[in-house]
Amino acid sequence: MKSNLKKSGFITIIVIVLICSFTPKDKVEVREDFKKYYDEQNVEGSFVVFEQNSSKYTAYNPKQYRETFSPASTFKICNSLIGLETGVIWDEDFILKWDSVVRPNPKWNADHDLKTAFKNSTVWYYREMARRIGDKRMKAWLDKAEYGNADTTGGVDLFWLKGGLRISPEQQINFLKRFRNYQLPFSKRSVDIVKKIMIADSTADYVIRAKTGWADNETGMSVGWYVGYVETKDNVYYFSNCIQTKDFDKAKARIDITYQILRELEIIPKSN
Prior knowledge:
This protein is an alpha+beta fold. The chain is 36% helix and 21% strand. The chain has helices spanning 2-19, 35-41, 76-86, 114-119, 123-133, 135-145, 169-180, 188-197, 253-264, and strands at 27-30, 44-51, 56-60, 95-96, 112-113, 199-202, 206-215, 222-232, 236-245. The radius of gyration is 19 Å and the shape is globular. 39% of the residues are buried.
């Protein structure tokens, strides 16, 4: 009996510590059983979803909620907004000519406009956009938008990939909420264009707007993101999936795990 009480007390302490990653006023349900999805893929990571109507968070491994990582290509959401707002690009059809440098991803080796560059996560397009925006304007907009730690060290065209920019799952969720609700310092036109190019999945039941990201670091452990939000007929669910792995072949796990959890939570139909 004493052993069971000690075990129960220990588990309670763990749950309290995990929930402390959130603020005292937050409604949080910890779902450590979601670990099964990460184990199946042989990756580590964390997941959080915020339900708008109930203001409730559901989280797996919430100790990572405020841990920061390189945003990698999830920064393309903010980068697109800045490009549009500064007039460096005009709309989703704005074309940048391919520089003829052959890159590992065949989809990158062509001219791109904003919508195809976002869809294919075309790194060279966004690096060129960043160079045209320039250091000072980029830093000013990151500060105004309060994006992550707003650190642009490492070069204006690399800081979100190999430089100093860092963002946490908490900051990803908060940025997405401000983005969807027009609470960022960008025009409605810019936000609406980016909302359009962010559509990753659309059915009669829901629309998912999202972006992947992948970053390698000096430890040899890569970070993979899938962040976005689901709009249903009567609710909105913001999510952040952050995986860590040494295996690039596990990149698809970012999306697969997200869909498994969204189905289990009945945010999207289980038949899809």
